[in-house]
Amino acid sequence: MRCRLKILSICIIASSFFSCKDTNTQNKKEVTNYPNQDSQLALLMREMTNDMEIIKSQILNREKLSSSVKIEKVYTDIPTDSYVRDNNWFIPMTDQYIFTVNDLLNNPVNTKDQYNTIVQSCINCHNQVCQGPIKRIKKLRIKK
Ligand code: HEC
């Protein structure tokens, strides 16, 4: 029984890589295969990506840093594939991401490094769950 569960979860993890990659290839056939691609979590992720672009320009222009995205919703927003949270690392990865954002916003000392640490925390989770957007996420980095 335990073993079957293990195999099942390996399949589920494997298919989560798959579906996440598909979401990102702009292919007509795949779009029809994944009619639910605008999940709450996917929409939130797009907001987070835009927000990172804004924060990046605030840093580069030496403006006051601000964010309007409710990042705590990563814990609760419904993903396309409900099993992405069925593991031991989704919550700690979310904790880490939120910590890095709050660290920059509340205690901006070395803003470029702090910002790039946020980008790394995005990538850390995506390495586990959803590798498709990583290339795009890497473009958010501030080059030094
Ligand atoms: C705790 C894990 C986690 C963290 C942290 C995380 N993501 Fe995601 N991300 C996901 C999951 C899971 C999905 C798939 C969402 C879905 O399809 O429902 C996703 C999807 C995306 C997508 C694709 C959205 C779409 O249009 O389908 C982008 C872009 C993205 N994330 C960018 C980011 C950025 C930028 C950050 C950091 C600011 C980030 N992510 C942090 C887990 C995470």
Please, could you describe this protein's structure?
The chain contains six helices and no strands. The chain has 144 residues and is mainly α. It has one domain. α3 packs antiparallel against α5 and α4 packs antiparallel against α5. The longest helix is centred in the N-terminal third of the chain and has 23 residues. It is globular. The protein starts with a helix and ends in a 6-residue tail after the last helix. Bound molecules: heme C. The site of heme C (HEC) has 29 residues, from α1, α3, α4, α5 and α6.
Number of helices: 6
Our measurement of the CA-to-CA distance between the termini, rounded to an integer number of angstroms, reads 52 Å
Report the major sheet. Answer: none
Strand content: under 5%
C-alpha geometry? globular
Question: Structural class of the helices, strands and pairings?
Answer: mainly alpha
Work out the helicity level. Answer: 55-70%
Low-confidence stretches: 1-5, 10-19, 22-34
Average pLDDT rating: 83
Say how many strands there are. 0
Radius of gyration over C-alpha positions, nearest whole angstrom: 17 Å
What string gives the helices and strands in order?
HHHHHH
Bound molecules: heme C
The tally of structural domains comes to 1
